[in-house]
Amino acid sequence: MVTLLGPSDELLRAMEHSFPHLDILVRGNEFHVSGAVAEVALLERLIDELLVVLATGQPLNRDAVERSASMLRAQTKERPADVLTMNIVSNRGRTIRPKTVNQKHYVDAIDKNTIVFAIGPAGTGKTYLAVAKAVAALQNKQVSRIILTRPAVEAGERLGFLPGTLNDKIDPYLRPLYDALHDMVDPESIPRLLAAGTIEVAPLGYMRGRTLSDAFIILDEAQNTSPEQMKMFLTRLGFASKMVVTGDVTQIDLPNGTPSGLKVVREILGGVDGVHFAELNSHDVVRHRLVGAIVEAYERYDPVTGSTVVPRVRPGVKAVNVHEHRRS
To answer: How far apart are CA 90 and CA 100, in angstroms?
Structure first.
């Protein structure tokens, strides 16, 4: 019970936040709950799911509790415990897992398809989970190398002529891929793997003219590829390889007038067998909880009128003012 409630009853507070219309009281090893029958039943299911997660030895946090409650309300086919206990790769006592249903669908799609496109806003785990699957495939000897690439396009600012060697110049563009890699592979072994070619991190331009076989290949920031670059990359696919292409079509940094290859490719490959398009949204953001709110706010903003579109409230549902909620 102590583990289920969390330190200083943090997880109990998360349950109360997810079920604001229930009165929840804990006495010893018992929950005493009063409120609408359907809500009480939902809370009971939530507690059952959390106990399953704890039985695997995995710790819980506030985020896991609130996400589990959201999954139960959405009546997803997957149980929250199935999502939260799915292990992708472990390193130094840390295990990488999906945290939402859409993330689990994304991870499952990588197993079932040769090419997977992951499209969604910042913070939804597109690149991070892809790198985790790549490392797992390498550890399980499903592939012999990992290739990480992204287009060298500046994000709305001019970096000028960077000093140093060619590797020094391209390193800032590839740094996010290195960051993800360091979370999943022992840092001291990365230079050795890079030197041996087991892991390769390179700009997209370096892919031209190559055939990439027996490899797990990830193209990051694909919204900044032209249609020609996208075609060039996809046709590098060799035997016994997998490709994951990630991008956010709301953050295109291409020069004006240049179409995004990520926008065009869905129309071209939408019905091709072995190709899957995974959609992630603001509900899948796993960074700071404010990131999801920021993404949703930008989605509602109309740049033409300069106003924010207020979401319509369903009948019988009370709209809550954020500031009033904080005061309460």
So the answer is: 19
pTM summary value: 0.79
Nearest in space to 45 (alpha carbons), one of 15, 25, 10 = 15
* 269: CB partners within 8 A, 6+ apart: 115, 275
User: What single letter denotes the amino acid at residue 293?
Assistant: A
225 neighbors 126 (Cβ within 8 angstroms): no
Angle 125-184-170 from CA coordinates, rounded to 5°: 75
Digit-coded pLDDT (tens) for 65-108? 999 999 999 888 889 999 999 999 887 767 899 999 999 999 99
Name the β-bridge partners of 216. Answer: 146, 242
The structure tokens listed for 280 are 């992630």
Q: What DSSP designation does 121 have?
A: -
| Predicted confidence (pLDDT) per residue in 11-56, tens digit | 999 999 999 999 999 998 899 999 999 999 999 999 999 999 999 9
Nearest to 241 by CA among 130, 148, 143, 147: 143
CA distance 224 to 249: 9
Q: Which residues contact 252 (CB under 8 A, 6 or more apart)?
A: 223, 224, 260
